[in-house]
Amino acid sequence: ENIFDRSRMAPKTPIKNEPIDLSKQKGCTPERNPITPVKIIDRPQPDPWTPTANLKMLVSAASPDMRDREKKKELFRPIENSEQSDTPDSLQYDIVDDTTVDEFEKQRPSRKQKSLGLLCQKFLARYPNYPLSTEKTTISLDEVASVLGVERRRIYDIVNVLESLHLVSRVAKNQYCWHGRHNLSQTLKMLQEAGELQYGELMTFQHKEQDLEYKFGERKKETILPSQDRPLLDFSEPDCSSASANSRKDKSLRIMSQKFVMLFLVSKTKIVTLDIAAKILIEETQDTVDHSKFKTKVRRLYDIANVLTSLGLIKKVHVTEERGRKPAFKWIGPVEFSGKTDELRGNSPTSDSLPGTERGACARYQICATGKQRFVRHTSFNGAQPCEGTRRKVSSEPNSPHQERQDEYCSKMINLAAVCRQKIEEDTRWVARNSSITSPFSLLPVPGDSDFCVNPLPQAVFPVAQAEVPNLSLPTGVSSQAPHPSTPAASKTENGKATLVPNQPFLCFPSSSFFMLCGGLQENNLSETLPTAGDTGNTSAQAQAAIPPAVCQKRSSHKCTSPSSPAHDEEPAAKKQTMEQSDLPLSLVVPKKPFESPKYESTPGSCCPSAVHLETYHLDLTSPAAPEAASKESLDCQEQEKPSQNTDPDEPCPGNEHISKENTNQPFQPQYLYVQPTTGLSSFNFLFSAYQAPGAISLASNQLPSLSVPCVMVPSAALASFPLVCSPSFTSPLSPVPDGSFSAAASMNFSMSSLASTTPVFISTTAMVTPKVSPAPSVDLQQPAHPALHLSPVLTRSCSAVKLDSPVCVGHPVTLLKLQQPSSTPLTPKSIRPAHHEAFFKTPGSLGDPVAWKKNEGNQTRSASSVQRRLEIPGTSPD
DNA sequence: CACTCCCGCCAATTA
DNA sequence: TAATTGGCGGGAGTG
């Protein structure tokens, strides 16, 4: 283009002299240009010949001013030329010279041409997407600005966004280093994880936004507000220095960009509407936000969106919601990248659940290895991944009702998430400060790590631990809570993934999540089998336990609730753990890997300790359970203080949650029995679904009988490594059933169980499945659910609210799906929401930490499969 | 009129 | 203190 300009320019200049032959000019011949040239001449084009000069020329040409000048000149020309065509010239030019005219015209008129998106494309065109690692390209802002013919201010807009994705990094004043997209997948992954943590919860909570707002709002406002923004990821890469880096405030554009991307990554549909994003990004509570602020945020989002669009990461779409059409953006970039972009993407929907998980797990592991693992973004999980397929599909079809729903949900979730996020952020910050941990990523999680750090073993040992860590990292206190919510989701996914692991006889649960399993269906048997069981089921706990102990403590300390009392403690701990696990990573991670890696086993010992805590996890696992658990936990912690929470009494969910909580607290008892490893067993933990009764799921938790599950034994050690294991075999039938029910059941159980034991355990949840629930719910849910499953944990969470949850919980690919469905059914999104809200509310109230709260809710929501709801409802029935 | 989002003032930060 | 960054919001272009 520039060249053209030049040519044009040049000609023009000469032309001046040439003057005037209209004929010539008009003529198609190059000569016409001459006319234009005059302008050029006028302008001192100092060095037309010089490259720089050319650039300048171009720039000037491009710039309006230049044009104007040119125009003026032209005008003059006529005079000069007098007859010639002066006047005509301009017109003629346009007409005649394509190039010239075009350019001119283009330049002038089109605002589009000046668009940030276009500018960004030009900018990007200057650098290779995948530069040789060795060579580093430095970018001079001044130079780029001049070359592109724009003000520097605009370059900042672009660079800031690119920097948020690590495509460039600032090396010095006016100097940026171009990295290209080599690390894009990693960055996205991090963002996804971070997003899950932050928003996942939120998503889950969606409904509860309000609640959250209240709660959070207060806190945030007071404490957090300003800082909230802190770059989520600051990833400034590992470099620690990054800290210093934060120049100025938060650099909202960078942060906003990251958050914005997170929303996409966390979103099931991968579609985010601007208004929702704006709300979420407005850190504060949505409530407060004033209109002007909202408008400003939207403007910024457009800026960011333009850049992201240029990067090919998103595209503009319209979402039709109840209210009408809304502008939105759809993520078209890589969806999953567990460690690497590829993984995620590649997965087919079906596979998603599994693969995603696995991958996610892998990534996590890797991370762990790295060291910072703690933070582990593991948390993040890919739980979400599974959802991808679904999401995408959905998203692709904005118009489809489903999508719409999702969107709505998402939006809601997002809002919630936002709130949660805030909390989280606070927490994280808090944590971070304390911890000072720097992981490669500065992600929030890190902070949490510190907490986690406490538990060395776990981390080292499992991914799970890691997963937990992340949770922790977030807000410590919060994290614990948060985890719950997330966990559930995770669990679901995990379950799906982990649980089902096809190959293995047993299901694994991700440590983090833990959870569940399922299996078979037998409902009744179990209880019997489990001799011990008496304890609540802490199944997953065991696994978690390993980690948790320390963590729990920490968490507990931080957050909440009292960990101390054993019973309570456990719960709390469990919660915490759960939360942690659940929160983020859990779901995702746990499932798969644990299994695979022998480590776990090896580590078992470590695990054992934690086992207790694991209980909590159990809850999570089952996503449904998880929710419950979460809720319970939260409840425990909070003790459901929030009656209000149950805003939606209607929905079972809340009730369920409550119930679950209650269960824990109340009568319910652990549905699962946990057998500790006593003697010989030491190494194994058993879980029972005590009640699992699947059918019961609904709570039935009490209904021990229901569970058929025989039992699941898990070596404690193993557990440690794995969150849970189930014998699939049991499930055989299960699998299908279980899914939905399963999760629910599980969750229920968990919650109950959570209380108690420390040991690891396990659970079979087979029973859980309680067919009853599952089926019905599943149906509804299923559809949604499926997606849910796929959904990333976060999504699921959020979505869960919507539907999937339960199903999601299951998370499992194959089996899970079924389960999910069932479970899901109950949960209709709608219903779910309310439920969630309630649940959340309750939870939150109890929870000190917003985050935890959120998580809990999230869990619930997600998990909140019908089961949960049921549980809750009954239990709580508060409202 | 609503949606986009360019433009550039001017404050915060840095050198 | 000057220069660099970048928040922010008016208001214009577009459909």
UniProtKB/TrEMBL annotation:
Gene Ontology molecular function: DNA-binding transcription factor activity, RNA polymerase II-specific; RNA polymerase II cis-regulatory region sequence-specific DNA binding
Region of interest: Disordered: 1-50, 63-91, 386-406, 475-496, 529-586, 624-664, 840-879
Occurrences of domain E2F/DP family winged-helix DNA-binding (ranges): 111-180, 248-333
Location within or outside the cell: Nucleus
Gene3D superfamilies in the cross-refs: Winged helix-like DNA-binding domain superfamily/Winged helix DNA-binding domain
Species name: Onychorhynchus coronatus
Compositional bias annotation for Basic and acidic residues: 65-77, 567-578, 630-642
Signal sequence residues: none
Protein's name according to its UniProt entry: Transcription factor E2F7
Name of the gene: E2f7
A single GO BP: sprouting angiogenesis
PANTHER family cross-referenced by the UniProt entry: TRANSCRIPTION FACTOR E2F, TRANSCRIPTION FACTOR E2F7
Protein family according to the UniProt entry: Belongs to the E2F/DP family.
Superkingdom to which the source organism belongs: Eukaryota
GO cellular component terms attached to this protein's record: RNA polymerase II transcription regulator complex
